Amino acid sequence: MNYSEKIKAALLGFAVGDALGTPVEYETRESLIRNPVKGMLGNLVRNQPPGTWSDNSSLVFCTCESLCNGYNLEDIAVQFSNWKNNRFWTPRRRVFTMDIQIEKAIERIDRFIEMGIRIKPYSSEGVNEKQNGNGSLMRILPLAFSLKDLPAEDRFKIIRDVSSLTHPHVRAVTGCFIYSEFASILASGKDKMKAYEEVQRSVKNFLVQKTDPVELKHYSRIFNEFIGGFSEQSIESTPYVVHSLEAALWCLMRSNNYSDTVLQAVNLGGDADTIGALAGGLAGILYGTKQIPEEWLSVLTRKDDIIDLATRFAIKVDN
C-alpha cells in the first residue's frame, strides 16, 4: 500500500467511523450492549440519512484542504471559519454539530479576520485544565502525513500551534502529538504492535523533554502499560482528550480488522462519533481501503469528494 492509498484509506476510514458513530452519539454503553451498532444507521434526532459524518470529519477535511497548499496556520484557521460560516466541507450544506469550545474559538478567528490582523493560536498561559476536550485531537490526522519528513521538534511545534487554534492546553497538545505520531508510524509500514512500542519508546522520550512530568502522567496508561490489555470497563468514552485517545487505541489494539475496530469503538457509547472516527482513521491506515465494507462506503456522504481530496493531498505530500 503506497502513501496515496494510505491517505485515501485514512480519510475514508475516519469518515466511515464518524458516520457509524454519529447516530448513537451519547448513547449509553448499556443501551448499545442491548442494541449494538452493526452498520450504517440514519440519524433520526438530527434528521440525517445513513452515511452522514459530523464536525469531526468536516474539520479533518478543512485541515487537509489547507495542507494541499502547504502548511499555513492562518489558512487552516480560515478554513475552519469557512466551515462554520459558509458550510464548507459539510456533509449536506449544514453544520449540525459543533463543540462549544470550537465555536468560541472560531468566533475569535472571525474577529481576527474582520480586523484584518494576523490570526494567532491561543496562548497556553492560564488555560483551565477543564478545557481538554477532544476538539483538536479529532482533526489532527492529516498532519501525520504532511509532517512526516520534519524533525520531531518541528512536528511538535506545528501540532502545538494547530491544536492551539482551539485547544491550547498542554494535555490536549500532547494527545494530538501522540495520535499523530502513532498514525505516522503506521503509515510508514510498521504493524500496530511495533508502532505502539515506538510510541512508548521514542515518542515518550521526546515528550519527557518537552512536557511537565505531572502532565505526562495523564498518559501513563498508554506510555507505561499496554492499553489493549485493559478491560472494557476501565476504558471511558467521554470527550475528554485522554479518554478519547485511550479508547481509540484500545479498540485498534484489540481488533484485527477495520470493521471490528470501528464497531467496537462506536459501541463503547458516549462520544461515539469521535472515538469511531479516531479509531477508524488509524484502522484505515493499517488495513487499507479494501477492508472497509463496501456497503458502508456506498452510502458515505460525499465519498467521491473525499477521494478527490485524498488524491490532491497525496500529490502534495509526495512532492
Describe, in plain words, how this protein is organized in 3D.
- With 319 residues, the chain is an all-alpha fold.
- It is built from 16 helices and no strands.
- It has helices at residues 3-21, 29-34, 55-67, 73-86, 100-115, 143-146, 152-163, 170-187, 192-210, 213-216, 220-223, 241-254, 258-266, 272-287, 294-297, 303-318.
- The protein is globular and about 50 Å long.
- The model has no long low-confidence stretch (mean pLDDT 96).
Based on the model shown, name its key terms.
single chain, 319 residues, mainly alpha, 16 helices, 59% helix
Question: How are the secondary structure elements laid out?
Answer:
Blueprint: H1 3-21, H2 29-34, H3 55-67, H4 73-86, H5 100-115, H6 143-146, H7 152-163, H8 170-187, H9 192-210, H10 213-216, H11 220-223, H12 241-254, H13 258-266, H14 272-287, H15 294-297, H16 303-318
Helix pairs in contact: 1-3, 1-13, 1-14, 1-16, 3-4, 3-16, 4-5, 7-8, 8-9, 8-14, 12-13, 12-14, 13-14
Tell me the major beta sheet. none
Uncertain regions spanning at least 5 consecutive residues: none
Shape: globular
Rg, please?
18 Å
What is the structural class? mainly alpha
Distance between the termini: 18 Å
Count all strands and give the number.
0
Estimated share of beta-strand residues: under 5%
Fraction of residues in helix: 55-70%
Helical segment tally?
16
Helix and strand string, N-terminal first? HHHHHHHHHHHHHHHH
| Mean pLDDT across residues | 96
